[in-house]
């Protein structure tokens, strides 16, 4: 069983880079499409990720990025029109693929007829962008805790930790399960990680993937 997503991000600037970095930390497979050669060089210097140079509105470039295997396509460039065009091209190539578009200003639900979710990162932050890309099974609850992630994680059926008490699960150092499954009390050693229920977890970035493997499979 796996809950990893194959994500294509159009735009390797600040928002795209930070969002991709968070998704990789959570164990997802990310490909970035970027037009600007300088930005591509910066991505190569800073971080190991699959980067494709080209225009993400071009179906040929999307196919080169593996659109046929993608679960989500996110247009995160600084141009609303480009982001919507990327999402529409992706939907045409792979009907049913989840699409997420960054917009330049908060206009409510004006664009949701065209894409599955819209982002206004200037208010939301990259962690919220990552939430929208992979849906609601893993959500970041705070964007003001430095590098520490405060996550709301739904335990997956068949995951290694599913059905076990906290005292029975060997979480890595740097992990703290905060809430019980009803969210009304602090988790205790006897708290059971029930499949389908959500738990608040504080986790350091270098162990996020290991925690996700335990709780999501």
From TrEMBL:
The keyword Ion transport applies. Coiled coil: none annotated. Residues 138-217 form the RCK C-terminal domain. GO terms for biological process: monoatomic ion transmembrane transport; potassium ion transport. Residues 4-119 form the RCK N-terminal domain. Keywords: Ion channel, Ion transport, NAD, Potassium, Potassium transport, Transport. The keyword Methyltransferase does not apply. PANTHER family: POTASSIUM CHANNEL PROTEIN 2-RELATED-RELATED (PTHR43833), TRK SYSTEM POTASSIUM UPTAKE PROTEIN TRKA (PTHR43833:SF5). This is Potassium channel family protein. It comes from Halovenus salina. InterPro entries: K_uptake_TrkA (IPR006036), NAD(P)-bd_dom_sf (IPR036291), RCK_C (IPR006037), RCK_C_sf (IPR036721), RCK_N (IPR003148), Trk_Ktr_HKT_K-transport (IPR050721). Part of a potassium transport system. It comes from the Archaea.
């Amino acid at each position: 069983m796996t809950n990893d997503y194959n994500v294509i991000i159009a735009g390797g600037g600040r928002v795209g880079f930070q969002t991709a970095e968070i998704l990789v930390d959570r164990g997802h497979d990310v490909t970035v499409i970027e037009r600007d050669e300088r930005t591509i060089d910066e991505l190569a210097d800073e971080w190991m990720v699959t980067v494709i140079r080209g225009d993400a509105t071009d179906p040929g470039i999307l196919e080169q990025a593996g659109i046929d295997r993608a679960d989500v396509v996110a247009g995160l460039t600084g141009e609303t029109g480009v982001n919507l065009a990327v999402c529409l091209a992706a939907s045409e190539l792979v009907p049913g693929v989840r699409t997420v578009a960054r917009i330049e200003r908060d206009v409510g639900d004006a664009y949701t007829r065209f894409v599955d979710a819209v982002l206004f990162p200037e208010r939301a932050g990259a962690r919220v962008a990552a939430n929208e890309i992979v849906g609601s099974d893993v959500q970041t609850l705070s964007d003001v805790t430095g590098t520490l992630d405060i996550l709301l994680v739904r335990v997956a059926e068949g995951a290694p930790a599913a059905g076990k008490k906290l005292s029975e699960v060997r979480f890595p150092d740097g992990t703290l399960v905060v809430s019980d499954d009803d969210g009304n009390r602090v988790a205790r050693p006897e708290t059971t990680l029930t499949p389908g229920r959500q738990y608040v977890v504080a986790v350091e970035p270098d162990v996020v993937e290991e925690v996700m493997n335990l709780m999501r499979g």
